[in-house]
Structure formats: structure tokens, C-alpha cells
Amino acid sequence: MSEITMKQPFPVFLCGHGLKYEIECILKVFVPAVRFQFYYDDLSLFHESSRFAAVQIRQGRNHTYFYCAVSLGEKRLRLAHRAEKLCPQINKQQCEVIISKMLFRLLQELTGLDVPWGILTGIRPVRKVLPLMDAGMNREEIFNTLKNNYWISDEKLELVYHTALVQRPLLMQTPKNSIGLYVSIPFCPTRCSYCSFVSHSVEQAKKLMPDYIRLLCEELKIWGRMVRELGLMIDTVYFGGGTPTSVSAEHLEQLMQAVEANFDLSHIREYCVEAGRPDTITAEKLAVLRKYGADRISINPQTMNDDVLRTIGRRHTAEEIVECYHLARSFGFENINMDLIAGLPSDTPESFHRTLEQIIALDPDSITVHTLTLKRAANLFAEGETQLENPVREMVRDSIAMLPEKGYQPYYMYRQKNTIDNQENVGYAKPGKESYYNMLIMDETQSIFGAGCAASTKLVEPNGMITRVCNYKFPYEYIAQFDQLMEKKQQVYEIYERIRTQEAAYAEK
Question: CB under 8 Å to 441, separation ≥6 — which residues?
């Protein structure tokens, strides 16, 4: 493996096309923890490289020719394919499938790696299943279609199909003209080694905190006015971050008061606050959450192994996780989620199994199992090569087997780039305890208004087009340029005019 994990850039030559995204995703599965250098229609360095990938599309008179070559040092393979004439600009998807399959075959033969998700690179696998269900296909037909199109393993087909079965009827209950509200609190006690979120330690951000909270409340007021003027209904509220409970009880109450004062919450189906780290949870903060209507919280241990907790930079113990969980139950919270991460540094399959057993014994309402992802902004990315032999697949399989047996069914799923062993993240829940916000953000069929720095507003049109209006990433930018940022919200009115026009046109058909 060492020959394909060296730190120098891995050259990728693209000739006759610009289909970079799918090619890069396939390469990342087989050639992890490296930086790719792309060359377009430039083969000047081709013969100087001992490690490379090259993909060419050439148009003939009646056919389109595809060429693919990969070298991983001493091993080199190439493949050619001829198809009826295709124009990459017109038939982009067909070209992507052809080159993805060619590249996948070569890399699999060169590395010998088993890739359970095949050539499927999208982050929302369930969205490949739902349209087939809507078309009336049965289980066998869906499996055959996805296996033929994407070469997905039976194990992953079972998982994604089961997730879609749980999710589909819940998605159909989404109220018309409803939106989700996301409130960003980008602060944490410390930064975990695996984390790439735009979050800042509370100690470093103390000076910024009062202004940030004040302006976030002002933004919520602006959003509230827009929701009323557009005739929309709040369906879910989600406080995320960072760790929302890393701020003081007073600041938390200030924000929740702003939500209550500016939005009609009489129709919401879910009000979730990421309590997250146990070292931020207090009785005072839990009392505030209950007072203002939060009915779902997340207490995220990630692991119940104290040694692993220290390795990733957590300042709490497994015992404190248990204490926080029971404290939250004592305040009447009846929908508690707990997050775990498979593949954390120094964790083992045996230790992860014990974590699963301990969390299941607590009996939370949902358990989300993430797979360790090597993100460039995370401190752990620099140690990426040390994670290549990570036994994460065994841990993930353990969770897939154990959780349904204990009454937790998979209800939402997503995948990320640079995930160890190309695994996935899955939310499991007891019946009736699924998170609507989690499902809808993955399904991308409901608009979400985002408040706070690094928050993204996602506007979904009836024709499927999605427009994102993003806030500044860092608190100091958010504070310094707040007025300019609020001016961007005019786009929301313009897009909703387009949405109303489309809705009227669909109604006439």
C-alpha cells in the first residue's frame, strides 16, 4: 500500500473532457490520503510519472472512444471502450458512467480492494432507491437495477433499501409550504481531532460571543418577518454547530426566546438541539431547552472508551456521558439521540462492540453511527496514512447487525468524501423517533432557512433546482459584515416568486 500513499501529488490526466468530479471520487476510494494534481489536455508530464491515472475521450466519425490507463508504480493497466457517438457536453451522465466503470475495473484489479458501494459516488444513496419505489418496482427489480448500474454489493443494497422503506412514508407526510429552520452556534469547548466544522473554542471566542448572539437574534427576526410575508410554515427547528450547549444558559435562552418571538411554532413536528458534548451539558441548560420547547436532543459520546476519548481530544469520560444521559431523562426528554463514530484512532472492533453494547443498554431513542472521515480541515487529516489499515468495516458491520436486533431501524443515510474504507453514516431510530430534519436535509425536497455563521439556506424549487445562499464562515466576518449579509436575503424573495410561478403552472396541468 505504501507506494500509493506517498505525499507527492498523484497526477491525473484528463483529455478531451472535463469530467473531473466522478473520476476524483473513484480515485479517492482506491488511492486514499493523497493529493491529486489534474492536467487538462496536457500530456507533457505523462511519461515522467510512475504513478498516474489518465482518462481520454475522443470523438470519431460514428463513435466515441474512451481510453483509461492507471499506473501505481510497478503495476500498470489500460482499457479501451468504443460507444455510439456521444458528446460529453450533451451526454455527460453516460460518459461519466462509462469512464467510472473503466477506472473502477482497473483500480480494483491493481489494488485488489473490495469496494461495497461500487461506482456510486453520490452522498445520498437513498435517493437512488426512492424513485424506483415510486415507479412501482419491487425489491428484486430495485436490487437488479442498482447492482447493474452501480455495482453495489448485496450488503449495502439491503441497508439502503431498508432505509428507504422506513423513510419513504415519513417523507410523504411533509406539510406543503413548510420549511426547516437551522440555527448555527459554531462554538465548542475544544476541537476534536477528526472535526472539520467551522467551530471555535469558547475560550477563544469569548470576546465575540455577545455580539454574535445579538446579531444572530437579529437575523432570526429578519427570517421571521420573511417567513410571515412568504406565507410559509415552520416544520422543524434545528440548533447545530459546533456544540450549541457550549454557550451559557443565558445566551441559549436569549436565542430560544428569539425563535419563539419571531416564528409561529404551533405546527412544528420537531425542535432539536445538538447538546453534543457531555462536558457542555448542565441542569440549567437542560431546563432552558425544556422551557422553550426543544423535544429532541443529541448527546454524542462518539465512543465509550476513555482512552479513545483522550486520543481525539475530548475532556470528558464515558462515566460522565452516562451521567448526562440520565440527567437529560430526569428533565423529561423523551427523544434522545446518541452519535458514535466507527474507526476513531486507537479504537478496535472489540472496543467499538463494547461501546455499542453500553449505548444500547442506556436505551436512547436513536443512535447515529458515523464513519471516520479524513477531512482536509481536520487535524487528523495530516495523519491520514496511519488510518489506511483502519478496521472500520468490521465496526460498521457490527452496528448494522446489532442495532436492528435491538429495535433500531435505519431511517437516514449519507456518504462523504474521504470516508475510511468508503463506508457510510447511518441514523438508526426506534419507530416514531426518527428525525424529520435529518431525513429532509438528505432528501432535499424541503427548503431550509439557515441563521448564523457558516449556515447555508437551501431553497428547493418544484422543478428540483436548488439554490444556496450561504452566510460567512467565521464569527468575526459574520459580525463585521452583518448588514451586507442580510442584503443577500433579497434573493430569497426573488426565488420564491419563481417558486410560486412554477407551482401555479403545475397546478394548471
Answer: 180, 448, 458
Pick from 248, 310, 315, 254: which is nearest to 279 by CA?
A: 315
Rg of the chain (C-alpha set): 24
Which of the 8 DSSP states describes residue 419? B
The CA distance from 230 to 224, in Å, is 10
Strands 366-371 and 425-429: antiparallel
Strand partners, 342: 371
Average pLDDT over residues 15-22: 92
Q: Which three cell numbers stand for residue 127?
A: 435517493
Q: Which helix (H) or strand (E) holds 392?
A: helix 392-405
Our CA angle for 42, 44, 46, nearest 5°, is 95
> Would you place residue 203 in the very low, low, confident or very high pLDDT band (cuts 50, 70, 90)?
low
Cα–Cα distance for residue pair 98/86, rounded to 1 Å: 11
The C-alpha cell 437513498 sits at: 126
Q: 121 Cβ partners below 8 Å, 6+ apart? A: 21, 22, 25, 26, 100
d(CA 201, CA 243) in angstroms, rounded, equals 10
Sign of the alpha-carbon dihedral angle for 146, 152, 157, 160: negative
225 neighbors 195 (Cβ within 8 angstroms): no
SS3 224: helix
Look at residue 428 and give its three-state secondary structure.
strand
Look up cell 436490487; give the residue: 143
Instruction: Give yes or no for a contact between 293 and 261, defined as CB atoms under 8 angstroms apart.
Output: no
Residue with cell 484512532: 345
In whole numbers, what is the pLDDT of the chain averaged over residues? 90
Amino acid, res. 186? P
**CA separation for the pair 245, 336 (Å, rounded):** 15
pTM for the model: 0.91
Pairing status of strand 63-72 against strand 36-40: unpaired
